[in-house]
Write a structure and sequence with these properties.
The structure is a homotrimer. Chain A is 26% helix and 41% strand. In chain A, β5 and β6 form a beta hairpin. Chain A has three helices and eight strands, in the order ββαββααββββ. The first copy, chain A, is an alpha+beta fold. Chain A is elongated and about 55 Å long. At the A-C interface, α3 and β8 of A face β3, β4, α2, β5 and β8 of C.
Chain lengths: 133, 133, 133
């Protein structure tokens, strides 16, 4: 049921649109109605849904998140506590409705892998639950 | 499987309780045990679960979120980047357990449509996965 | 389908790893492939996935969250608005992929009950959807 994809991020904070991976997973699964889950098995990356028409929207999101992490002394020795914090705030999965064999995303919605400690190669797991044709 | 509801918000930042829509969706679906998904197909609105006993709780949530968005210059020309940021932080869906044909919400839990760029008419998709009677 | 667990938290802000409860739920359910849902039916607690190797990571997360809540006058008379705010930001559920009868968590991922208004005894609901053997 789960298919793994590999996604290369390009910067420390980066947002890579992966809507096409979810759309293709739904198509290949033969799912007619149900839910498509996108899951990121990492602790310094996450996944979210936001506007994919104007790229400034997701860029503004990234700059706002960086500002929101407080400047306090962190104990985690790797120095990437801000990335772990943002991963949990954004979340490790999204659930997208499927009907008629396609994702029921809103007009402006796209699915983004959220990188907070890149650049790295990241794994994305996509799986579909529901009724097949 | 998915049923769409239309919800009118009343203010720029607004929280509309939609627990009854999810409860009714479960009832109409005939689902006995499984998960009820509530999904918002927008990028400046979201959905969350919080206390519905004292309305001050969700109002405090809204005022805190508004304060948490940093005052930095945003590039998105529409001027509603804070709404996009909050939509991703709150999230576009919730998953609520169902057993015995009813939502297993906690005593104080209610489901709220979160409006961050209103007032507008918003769409809410509700669908149930699991075992019917 | 849903099994309830009781978890005692020890401090006002606390993070209790509950990965083993989800792993055991998958094993007992006989689920081969699907999704394991972990749900917290409270409004001042939540659930998240983050690193469980270095305990400093989740401790840094807790201290950052406490700093992120703005110091504004809240109206909710119980005085625990910050806990309600953090519960919604962290979220009330996680969805974890299952394949081959086991959780497909990443190498460093663990599931944490997030307490923001403890110490208390908390309920955790765990349920599995998908295909059994």
């Amino acid at each position: 049921m789960w298919h793994e994809h590999s996604v290369q991020t390009r910067k420390q904070t980066d947002f890579i649109e992966i809507t096409h991976l979810a759309a293709e997973a739904v198509r290949q699964s033969g799912l007619q109605e149900g839910v498509c889950f996108v899951y990121v098995p990492h602790t310094t990356a996450g996944v979210t849904i936001n506007e994919d028409a104007d790229p400034d929207v997701i860029a503004d999101f990234g700059r706002a998140l960086a500002e929101m992490v407080p400047r306090i002394p962190f104990r985690h020795a790797e120095g990437n506590s801000p990335a772990h914090i943002l991963a949990s705030l954004v979340g490790s999965s999204v659930a997208v409705p499927v009907e008629g064999g396609r994702l029921l995303l809103g007009t402006w919605q796209g699915i983004y892998l959220c990188e907070f400690d890149g650049p790295r190669r990241r794994r994305v797991l996509i799986g579909c639950l529901g009724t097949k044709a």
